[in-house]
Design brief:
CATH topology: TIM Barrel
Number of helices: 10
CATH class: Alpha Beta
Number of domains: 1
Strand content: 15-25%
Radius of gyration: 19 Å
Mean pLDDT: 90
Low-confidence stretches: 1-30
Helix content: 40-55%
Length: 290
């Protein structure tokens, strides 16, 4: 409990520090480089695409939009086409920056885990593994951290020799809270473990986002953004909410310069339409930031 108290105290202190950061570093560029097209990762466009594109059509669509980075979200039916996916990406000058990596408590027994790691090893792909973890809803804080740390450590040790990193992905529940993820990272003690934070899974934390962002920023490997309104919906185009501007100002005024993910995640839409909507919304936000 002592470690968690320290983290919560740091969160409260950080909230004040970020709120006053605009005057502390006025010379920093606000958003132009961070939110430039070449720093954006397309995310949630494989299972969420009304056109159900295959690997070649998907890569061509991203290239046409000027997107050169991609995070691979998949369902079981997509795993047999991993080599086609990578070939199409490479042909179109697109890098595979992240890979969806859901785990259970015994990852070594999960077929998709073996398939993904074998593919990354064989094709010499260095990427981020965006790790979500289902946990039983019981135990003390220390017990939960210890239970979560075991599969995360396993993944980090499997990823390390092939040059990959592991990013804990907030997908709801106890594991999705940044403070808990930081405790897990500290318990694992591996340098290739960090955080991939998603706006769309963080509606409950909008009010304390400045302090939370400051707390997790040293561990942040990727940031996926979304339109944000307190009352929802969960998936909303950038620029259509009333909270994402302030949240992105916090990010832009920090020294975070890692990749930024933009979402498809709307199964009823052509993925190109969803991405284009977010690209246009982000351009308007960047103008307001700057």
């Amino acid at each position: 409990m002592e470690r968690r108290s320290v983290l919560l105290g740091a969160l409260a202190a950080a909230a004040g520090g970020v709120a006053g950061s605009a005057s502390a570093a006025p010379e920093r560029p606000m958003g132009k480089r961070l939110f430039a097209r070449e720093n954006l990762i397309a995310w949630c466009i494989v299972p969420f695409d009304a056109k159900k594109r295959g690997p070649e059509e998907r890569a061509a669509m991203m290239k046409a939009l000027g997107i050169t980075r991609f995070a691979y979200d998949w369902r079981d039916e997509h795993l047999p086409t991993l080599d086609r996916e990578l070939d199409a990406l490479q042909k179109n000058g697109i890098t595979l920056d992240a890979f969806w990596f859901p785990l259970g408590l015994e990852p070594e027994k999960q077929p998709h885990v073996r398939t993904i790691l074998e593919f990354l090893t064989r094709r010499k792909v260095k990427t981020q593994l965006w790790l979500s973890l289902g946990l039983p809803d019981r135990g003390t804080q220390e017990e939960r951290v210890a239970v979560a740390a075991k599969p995360v450590r396993w993944a980090a040790e499997a990823a390390e020799p092939i040059g990959c990193s592991v990013a804990l992905y907030n997908h709801g529940g106890w594991f999705g809270e940044a403070e808990n993820q930081i405790e897990i990272i500290q318990a694992v003690g591996k340098r290739n473990v960090g955080i991939a934070y998603n706006f769309h899974h963080g509606h409950r934390r909008m009010d304390d986002f400045p302090g939370m962002f400051r707390l997790m920023k040293p561990h942040l490997l990727a940031l996926n953004i979304n339109g944000m309104r307190k009352e929802g919906p969960q998936i909303l185009g950038l620029g259509k909410g009333d909270r994402e501007l302030a949240m992105l100002r916090v990010v832009a005024e920090s020294d975070y310069r890692g990749p930024v993910g933009i979402l498809g995640h709307r199964a009823e839409l052509d993925a190109e339409v969803a991405l284009r909507e977010n690209l246009e919304g982000l351009e308007r936000i960047v103008e307001r930031l700057g």
